[in-house]
Write a structure and sequence with these properties.
By secondary structure, the chain is mainly beta. The protein has one domain: Hotdog Thioesterase (Thiol Ester Dehydrase, Chain A, Roll). Helices cover 14% and strands 40% of the residues. It contains 1 helix and 5 strands, in the order E-H-E-E-E-E. Strands 1-3-4-5-2 form a 5-stranded antiparallel beta sheet. The longest helix is centred in the middle third of the chain and has 16 residues. The chain is globular, with a radius of gyration of 13 Å.
Length: 113
């Protein structure tokens, strides 16, 4: 499913072989938001994981094969800017999504070509 360009990665800063960073913003018009939750929309965790999967494709040209761990620690509201970071730590890909200094989500994933 394709979404408007403004919700995709708009910034790739300080990317390297061991780290990838990208800015993310999910627009108010995203099709998942009307039901999650009416009157008080929050970006669903599965949408954050879609961004993690896309970042892995952009960084390593790999598809997301497994989510080993995922914790959703704080809400992300439509239109808020967040930063997604992937780190390769001893062969494991760790992700973290932050809004300013607040960790919104973090976890560990696996990918394959």
């Amino acid at each position: 499913m394709q979404y408007p360009q403004r919700q995709t990665y708009v910034d790739q800063r300080n990317s390297s072989d061991n780290r990838y960073r990208a800015a993310v913003c999910v627009p108010h018009e995203h099709p998942c938001l009307p039901g999650h939750f009416p009157g008080h929309p929050l970006v669903p965790g599965v949408v954050l994981l879609q961004h993690v999967a896309k970042a892995l494709r952009d960084w390593r040209e790999q598809r997301l094969t497994r989510v080993l761990e995922a914790k959703f620690l704080a809400p992300l509201h439509p239109g808020e800017q967040a930063e997604l970071e992937l780190d390769d730590v001893a062969g494991r890909i760790r992700f973290e999504v932050r809004r300013e200094s607040v960790v919104v989500a973090r976890g560990v994933i696996e990918g394959a070509a």
